[in-house]
Amino acid sequence: MSGSSVQAAAVSPVDSNSLSYFKEFYMKSFVKWFGIIALVAVIGFSMAACDDDSSGGGGGGGSANLIGTWTSVIGSQFIFTANNCTYTAGWELYNGPYTVSGNTITLNPSYAIANIEYVITIVNSNTINHQSIEYHKR
Question: What is the CATH number of domain 62-137?
């Protein structure tokens, strides 16, 4: 073993053509994956930003859209303000607060003339329904 010598393997430098090929390949892959991730993020944020329509039904709903006078063909009326509702059918049957949940409006029975809980359905932004009678916004 006295005469043997260990020689290091010669390492050849990487030629510039193969290096540019790898850069191009990895850059294309990076851009493709970055684009896919960006597209998924845009779709995800778009879906998260969509309203689930919990404030009203059928395009109407919410107390802001209720404000005003709603009249039926038989002459009865619901008059909504920001915090109060008045219901008349020849005479005043209700005058008090209301709550909105989904597409349902509920009038507190303690403010009704006959202690009745009135439940009104929001059909759309121009129509509400109470006891199968449609009321249209004026």
Answer: 2.40.128.290
